[in-house]
Amino acid sequence: MSAAAGFDRVALVGIGLINGSLARDMKRQGMAGEIVAASRRRETLDTALGLGLCDRATTDPAEAVRGADLVVIGTPVRAAGEVARAIAPGLSPEAVVTDVGSVKGAVVEAVLPELSHPGRFVAGHPVAGTEHSGPAAAIEHLFRHRWTILTPTEASDEDAIATVRGLWETVGSRVEVMTPEHHDQVLAMTSHLPHLIAFSIVGTVDDLEGHLRQEVFKFAAGGFTDFTRIAASDPTMWRDVFLSNKDAVLEGLGRFTEDLIALQRQIRWDDGDALFDLFTKTRAIRRGIVEAGQAYGRRAVIDDEPAVKDQTAP
Amino acid sequence: MSAAAGFDRVALVGIGLINGSLARDMKRQGMAGEIVAASRRRETLDTALGLGLCDRATTDPAEAVRGADLVVIGTPVRAAGEVARAIAPGLSPEAVVTDVGSVKGAVVEAVLPELSHPGRFVAGHPVAGTEHSGPAAAIEHLFRHRWTILTPTEASDEDAIATVRGLWETVGSRVEVMTPEHHDQVLAMTSHLPHLIAFSIVGTVDDLEGHLRQEVFKFAAGGFTDFTRIAASDPTMWRDVFLSNKDAVLEGLGRFTEDLIALQRQIRWDDGDALFDLFTKTRAIRRGIVEAGQAYGRRAVIDDEPAVKDQTAP
User: Which of A85, A87, A151, B214 sits between 20 and 30 A of B195, alpha carbons compared?
Assistant: First the structure.
């Protein structure tokens, strides 16, 4: 654990759920002398100011980062390169720059060439969130007990890595370091693919014929209701994730489809033993995850105790 | 709403999550003079007796139903026919018989021919549950604010239908009547298919190569963690559901696979607009469900207030 992080001026470029929640924690913990928010939309900045997420706000990214010792890019991932280009003229040489995007390879590739001091950039991904978005969705303690993955490059300065690590540890996150490529492989399976599947099946149900469709929504049971929550996540963010992590997502999707077709065949041919064996295995996996303390819901993040589980209805 | 249900003797054949939770509510509300539980396994009965879910317990189904005015079959659905055959010798002519299975067509087909008084049988499905199973998983208020779907046949006596309706309404459930076939179509989409997908993807991840597999479980994020919970549901119950509702599940799976492949193609060809449109649509669907009051989690079932949502991490 590093020393608690403190900054004279923090610039948050993009002020949605993640950067907004980070702002709440930094405010509460007195981690920043001043927080400056930037957004393309004046309305977003007014909301952020109204909620006290920042001290100043501007639609000019270069202006926002001027004099900042920490810059956090919190936009959809496909905008990261453009943001880097926009802030470059305002950046101090010693300012540490990081981001919070869910894809790391494409972000590192887009951002590095835009910066005069690429050693000061350390890409990061706090693996936390909700299905809500925008500054009004920001909550305290969002990162507590969650992982943040940092993906520095060989060019990254050691002290910049330590600074970003300290930022996330101070707001309660556990920090792990890996390569951007490895991050994207892991997250493709653990997050991107499940979201893709949820978006897909909710779309499938919505396409059902009128009466059946109505009834499916009326009797929406545990399994499907969980999927609709996941499929309520921010459209722009997720479009960018799938297009920016295309190779790993398509690879995972290929594996999933093969397995689903095998399962389909087992149902068609009444292979009850194969079904039972798979379901027994997946039940044991859940036990392992619960024991590993990963299966925490929102309440756990806030209250530091195991979450109330949603029900899955049969 | 019918009058509150009351019974002299209730026989619960199978005493797992659903029948056990029903027993808790009946006990609390004084709905039954005596509750008799039957199970093939002595150990299950000892647990049920120890938890006070029943007053008497027996491994003989015919003995359990003797003198009962209500019989609730709560076994995995493929055992329902066998159970009906086993209880037939002990049933009073006027006893009302129902079940709680997640598939209705196959259950009705298997049970009716075994009963001397088929007009007394009214199949039912309380659309409620958790990923846990067995009598120790039984909880109070499981059915409150949830739907119970009844699927009587043309042979069903009106007073038997009213009795089963009264049973579920008394424990707080909303009751809807439809045909077994329609029930199975609706539930295939809203519950069976989501469970199948969750079982499948958790299996896919478990098959990953060693290091990547470990990391996926370590960094398991919101989307995937939700899936592991759904995929922790009872293996025997779900094997039976998929095999007993094969046609509707395969039909739903076919639609889902087509849509997923279309989505795969959109990602491969960078069709960001199509992705954005789908995700915008699915987000709106969630809003509709939340507004319709369907998106309640466990806390809502117990506390009658909106659930704390799990987080879905990006």
Answer: B214
Query: Distance from A93 to chain B by nearest Cα, in Å?
Result: 31
B191, B270, B286 ranked by CB distance to A313: nearest: B191
Query: What is the mean pLDDT of the segment spanning B250-271?
Result: 97
For the residues of A25-78, what is the DSSP string, one character each?
Answer: HHHHTT-EEEEEEE-S-HHHHHHHHHTTS-SEEES-HHHHHTT-SEEEE-S-GG
3-state helix, strand, coil in chain A (%, to 5): 55, 15, 30
> Which residues are within 8 A (CB) of B215 and not within 5 positions of it... i.e. 6 or more apart?
A182, A186
Q: Which residue of B has its CA nearest to A312?
A: B130
- Whole-angstrom distance, CA of residue B44 vs CA of residue B20: 11
pLDDT at B291: 75
B25, pLDDT greater than 80: yes
User: Cα B257 vs. chain centroid, distance in angstroms?
Assistant: 25
A219 pLDDT band (50/70/90 cuts)?
confident
Cα of A252 to nearest chain B Cα, Å: 9
- Sign of the dihedral defined by the CA atoms of residues B49, B97, B9, B63, in that order: negative
Q: For chain A, what is the mean pLDDT?
A: 90
Q: What is the ipTM of this complex?
A: 0.88
Q: Return the CATH number of A7-178, one of 2.60.40.1220, 1.20.1300.10, 3.40.50.720, 3.80.10.10.
A: 3.40.50.720
d(CA B45, CA B37) in angstroms, rounded, equals 7
Long-range residue pairs from B41-49, CB within 8 A, at least 24 positions apart, any chain: B44/B15, B44/B16, B44/B134, B44/B135, B45/B15, B47/B134, B47/B135, B47/B136, B48/B15, B48/B20, B48/B23, B48/B135
The tokens for B118 are 């088929």
CATH 3.40.50.720 positions along chain A are 7-178
Q: Which residues contact A125 (CB under 8 A, 6 or more apart)?
A: A100, A101, A102, A104, A148, A149, A150, A151, A183, A187
Q: How far apart are CA A8 and CA A163, in angstroms?
A: 13
Tokens of B98: 């129902």
Asked whether B57 and B45 are in contact (CB, 8 A), the reply is yes
Band (A305; pLDDT cuts 50, 70, 90): very low
Give the up-direction half-sphere exposure of residue B29: CA atoms within 13 A in the CB hemisphere: 19
Test the B interface: residue of A184, A212, A227 with most B CBs within 10 Å:
A227
Exposure string of B218-240, with b = 16+ CB inside 10 Å and e = fewer, is ebbbbbbbbbbbbbbbbbbbbbb
Subunit contact A294:B220, Cβ cutoff 8 A: yes
- Phi then psi for residue B97, to 5 deg, are -115, 135
Structure-token match 């951002």, residue found: A111
Q: What is the CATH number of domain A183-303?
A: 1.10.3660.10
Q: Which of residues 217-256 of B touch A (CB under 8 A)?
A: 217-243, 246, 249-250, 252-253, 255-256
- The Cα–Cα gap between B7 and B94 comes to 13
* CA B133 to each of CA B75, B129, B304: distance values in angstroms, whole numbers, following the listed order: 11, 9, 23
Q: Give the alpha-carbon dihedral of A141, A142, A143, A145, to 10 degrees.
A: 70
Torsions phi, psi for A93 (to 5 deg):
-60, -30
Contact assignment for A280 to B187 by CB distance below 8 Å: no
CATH 1.10.3660.10 residue ranges in chain A?
183-303
Task: Note the pLDDT of residue B97.
Answer: 98
- Name the residue of chain B whose CA is nearest to A296's CA: B310
Distance CA A91, CA A115 (A): 9
